[in-house]
Amino acid sequence: MSNFIQLVKNEQMKMYAQISTWVMLIILAVLVIGFGIILKVDGGMTQQEAPAGNEWREALQAENEQIESEMEEGSGFAPMNEETLAKNQYRLDNDIAPSGYNVWNFVQENRTNVSIISLLTIIVAASIIANEFKWGTIKLLLIRPISRSKILAAKYTSVLVYAATMLLLLYVLSILTGAALFGTNNFNEPFLFMKDGEVQEAPIFQHTASQYLLSSVNLFMMATFAFMISAVFRNSALAIGVAIFLMLSGNSIVAFFMDKEWAKYILFANTNLNQFFTGTPMIPDLTLGFSVSVLAVYLILFLGLSWLFFTKRDVTNS
Amino acid sequence: MSKAVMQLKNLKKTIKNKPIIKGLDFEINSGEVFGFLGPNGAGKTTTIRMMVGLMSMTDGDVIIKGHSVKNDYKKAVQHVGGIVENPEMYPFMSGRKNLIHYSRMVPGVTKERIEEVIKLVGLEKRVNDKVSKYSLGMRQRLGIAQALLHKPSILILDEPTNGLDPSGIREIRAYIRRLAAEEGVAVIVSSHILSEMEMMCDRIGIIKNGELISIQSVNDALQQSEKKEVSLEAEPMAEAQTILNEVIEGDVQQNKDALTFTVTREEIPGIIARLVSREIDVYSVTVTRSTLEDKFLDLIGEGAIE
Ligand SMILES: Nc1ncnc2c1ncn2[C@@H]1O[C@H](COP(=O)(O)OP(=O)(O)O)[C@@H](O)[C@H]1O
Ligand SMILES: [Mg+2]
């Protein structure tokens, strides 16, 4: 075990000795901070102040009345209106004032940057094996009294550590940037959501963190896929290309085969676990349990192939 | 002394139905420098890759200190340090970081040991520079350093003098001899250049087309070839050549300002006495030890070097 940690340390050392890794970190930081500054300068939605004192009560009541009259006329989007109505009522009943645009809105918006992290993690996952072959260092790496399986596991772990580092960086940096630019008023506001027709409360921290994690499922699967291609073909460009292509076209693939019986077994039909918590699944008969099982099967397949090729194939120059 | 630390047993490798290694059987003893000699494409690197587990064996096995590389890889390979083909290191890290990297992969390599090997290969001054700034010679030294970190009993160096200048080659040769003599390490060196091998090896195995065609100790081989090549500077040259032709069976060749011919060692004094008595001025006599070269070429055939 201790020597497994040493191997992971080695992989991390090699990763951070390369300039490209730092460039990736900087890209992410620039995106978050830049996005914040643009929002701040542009004003718009972020400028609207939360109503002071008890004015918010009147505002919410007015909004609710308007929605109710709209619903009677039959216009507007019913489910959404009902949700707003219920949430507003909950606020009024429980004395929870709505906040203006604050740090948590910014954190939630930055969730889109998880897809940037996916891209960067794919690059890292695709390179971590292929580069050893490209550099020729694979030979010196493998002539040690350590099984190839263990070296492979250390490399995979290292990719996951990288992804986790980037996600944490995104999350923490979003909070810091958001706090600096949009203030920390209502920092402890609860997050309201609908479950089984009832309004529920959850700590906002817990909500945003779990949203980030759910969004990382796709990242995790595509990084593992890139890792597998890299282990099988020992070519990082190929692995990056195929993985990014699939990531970008994933939803179109599902849409294209939507009416097929087997569409629900497509990886990308199952990577969006968010759909089970908020909104409706793309394919009606999907359930959380089913999706998690499908993901597990794909994961085992990807890792199994990586292992098979990495441990069994000869190391030659070609 | 002559205990075998590595044994090759009917080692074979077939790639895509093409036999590359056709059954190698030999042993390496502790403390000896074993030369693995053969023309390009003979199968040296392939054999070495199998010795260290980079390639699977089609048949046979390699036994290192009693452990089979095939069945007990970790135990077998823990006694081995090596470089396979070029000494490729991580170019974006310093020499020291590269060594730290490899030191983490074997138990028991201390910080002191890292410093020790850096000194041993003479890289103290440049060890904190990035490897991308190293010359080939320095990379070769760093390669040897990483191979020695865990004090292996067997050091395998694939063409360690490839691409080095003469002084680099001399240095590598000195390390290798010292390692064998002082640390009792068995060293396997591969090369396609015979003259290099002669100077650093105790025994030489010659491989051609995946087969071992000769294996013998360097001293034996040298004694076997009794005839010496002699080159002689004398004036007047034409007359000297005539006299030599009288006493020598073989050809006397004139190249530049010297005459060369092949005789046994015992014949040399008589020849010189004869020249002097016929009033020839002899300026120099050089006996070039007859190298294994002829033998090597005989064995592998002139056409074997593709
Ligand atoms: N991966 C491979 N696939 C096919 N042929 C190979 C492969 N590796 C080596 N060979 C062939 O095996 C022979 C021996 O190669 P090698 O061991 O590199 O020779 P050496 O190191 O003695 O120069 C060569 O003819 C080479 O073409
Ligand atoms: Mg070779």
Automatic annotation (TrEMBL), chain A:
Record flagged with keyword Membrane: yes
Domain of life: Bacteria
Pfam families: ABC2_membrane_2 (PF12679)
Keyword terms: Membrane, Transmembrane, Transmembrane helix
Transmembrane intervals: 21-39, 114-135, 156-182, 212-233, 238-258, 288-310
UniProt protein name: ABC transporter permease
From TrEMBL, chain B:
Family the UniProt entry places it in: Belongs to the ABC transporter superfamily.
Keyword Iron-sulfur listed: no
Protein name: ABC transporter ATP-binding protein
Signal peptide location: none
Residue ranges of domain ABC transporter in the record: 6-234
InterPro entries per UniProt: AAA+_ATPase (IPR003593), ABC_transporter-like_ATP-bd (IPR003439), ABC_transporter-like_CS (IPR017871), P-loop_NTPase (IPR027417)
Keywords of this entry: ATP-binding, Nucleotide-binding, Transport
Domain of life where this protein originates: Bacteria
Gene Ontology terms, MF aspect: ATP binding
Keyword ATP-binding: yes
